[in-house]
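INTERNAL AUDIT FORM
Audit reference: QA-55
Scope: verify that the stored structure record matches its stored sequence.
Auditor: D.O.
Record contents follow.
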Amino acid sequence: MDECTQHLKIKVKNHTDEAQLIRVEERKTHGMEKWNLQQHRKGHLRECARKNHLVYNALLGTPYEKVEQKCDELPNFKEVKKIVIRFGGDEELYAEWKFAAHNHLREQGHTKCSGQPQKPGS
């Protein structure tokens, strides 16, 4: 595992730890403070954790369908690509990973993936 992938793995674990700590704090509070903690955990933190988890697995070459067998909301592939490039990922390999991801999502019935994704290198 190279240094960038290792750094990303730590980042993914930190998101998990942060979510657990927030849940503990939620139990100690009430009212708006509790609501704000929940919104941060369920919104921003969950979105960041998912993107970084997808990036980590894309860099390792793990197929998307093994990472997310089912999803209700499509990933933000533009953001995922930015992070992949920032962590030294190959754009062509990412394009192949994304193509396979789109195929999987289309099979799952996501209408936003109903068009034919362009094959990498075409």
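Auditor finding: record pair retrieved intact. The chain has one domain: 3-113.
Action required: none
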